[in-house]
Amino acid sequence: MWVHILDEHAQALIEDDEAKRQKARVLALGQFELIGLMDTAERLRDALRPTSPRPEFRQRLKTQLVRDMRRRALYRTILHRSLRSYWVWGAVMSLVSLAGGVGYYLHRRSQAA
After folding, report:
1. CA 5 to CA 25: how far, in whole Å?
2. Please, are residues 45 and 64 in contact by the beta-carbon 8 Å criterion?
3. Are 59 and 104 part of one and the same domain?
4. Residues 6+ apart with CB under 8 A from 66
5. What is the Cα–Cα distance from 42 to 20, expressed in whole angstroms?
6. Whether residue 41 is found in the same domain as residue 66
7. Would you say 5 and 27 are in contact if contact means Cβ atoms under 8 Å apart?
8. For residue 7, what are the domain limits?
9. Is residue 25 located within the same domain as residue 7?
10. What span, in angstroms and rounded, lies between the C-alpha atoms of 108 and 94?
11. Three-state SS at 79
């Protein structure tokens, strides 16, 4: 029974329906624990009203998010290109090293013969 009364009271607070709120209070008469919980819920509702940000804040936030997104995309592009160039230079250096090793081997072989 308590849960039903508290649920009705909560719905009345959410919908801002004074008639439903008073009906739930009448059902809770004589049950001091319920009255205390309802009073607490009403005080919380009054203290924590939903708000929305000012349009200037929303525009500034949108601008910052777009700028950060573009900066990250640019960073990823630069990073991708630099990693690709590292791979290319790594492959070139490996081939040079391999060619040097083969050249040294051929030189040693011709010296021995």
Report:
1. 8
2. no
3. yes
4. none
5. 13
6. no
7. yes
8. 2-47
9. yes
10. 21
11. helix
Tens digit of each residue's pLDDT (9 = 90 or more) over 49-61: 778 889 999 999 9
Question: DSSP character for 1?
Answer: -
DSSP string, 23-80: HHHHHTTT-HHHHHHHHHHHHHHHHS------HHHHHHHHHHHHHHHHHHHHHHHHHH
Q: Are residues 36 and 59 in the same domain?
A: no
Number of domains in the chain: 2
Dig out the tokens for 25 from the structure: 């209070």
Cα angle: 43, vertex 49, 52; to 5 degrees: 170
Cα four-point dihedral sign 64, 69, 72, 74: negative
pLDDT tens-digit map of 51-104: 888 999 999 999 999 999 999 988 888 777 777 777 778 888 899 999 999 998
What's 113's DSSP letter?
-
